[in-house]
Each structure stands twice: as C-alpha cells, then as structure tokens.
Amino acid sequence: MTCRQYREWIEDLVDGTIVPIRRAELERHLAECAECRSFLADMETMFVERAPLRRHIDADDVAAASAYLLSDDAKNVTGTTLYVDAGYHSMGM
Ligand SMILES: [Zn+2]
C-alpha cells in the first residue's frame, strides 16, 4: 500500500470508523513512517479544533461510557443512543 492509501485509513482512525484489522496494519505502518505520523497528528489537531467540546476522543472514553451502561447506575436505562463524539452529533455532524 502507499502512504496515500494509508491516509484514508488515518481519517477513519481519527473519526473512529476504522475496522480492527486495518487499524493493526495502519499501526504497523505508522511505526515506520514519520510522514504518516505527522499527517495523523495534524488530523487529530484538526478534529479537536473543530469538536464542539474541543477534546480528543479515545478508546478509554468509549470504554467509560460502556462501563456506565453496564453498571448499576444504569440499571433502569432500557434504551438510548449514547454519543461519545466530543459533541459532533449535537452539531449535526
Ligand atoms: Zn506513510
């Protein structure tokens, strides 16, 4: 694959839509390619700057939301859509 193709996967990584098998391959490429690491850093900065909450999202944020839904605190929650997206959904994005 070329760096140009990996950059499409980097965009998927930043917006959280990358599938695990591609993520693993992308991480191997990022370990070897400074240019793509720089592109990833730029994409992450742009994501945060445009996010209504001005924060980055990572797997721990999704895990925390999942832990809440699995906890006793959510024992009476019977259905909801819980967005973990730094506010992008609220902006219609
Ligand atoms: Zn590259």
3D architecture notes:
This protein has helices at residues 3-15, 20-32, 34-50, 59-70. With 93 residues, the chain is an all-alpha fold. The protein folds into two domains: 3-50, no CATH class; 59-91, no CATH class. The longest helix is centred in the middle third of the chain and has 17 residues, at 34-50. The mean pLDDT is 92.
Shape: elongated
What proportion of the residues is helical, as a percent range?
Answer: 55-70%
Strands, count: 0
Largest sheet: none
The kinds of small molecule bound in this structure are: zinc ion
The structure class reads: mainly alpha
Short description:
With 93 residues, the chain is mainly alpha-helical. It has helices at residues 3-15, 20-32, 34-50, 59-70.
Secondary-structure blueprint of this entry?
Elements: H1 3-15, H2 20-32, H3 34-50, H4 59-70
Helix pairs in contact: 1-2, 1-3
Bound molecules: zinc ion.
Features:
4 helices; mainly alpha; elongated; 93 residues; binds zinc ion; 0% strand
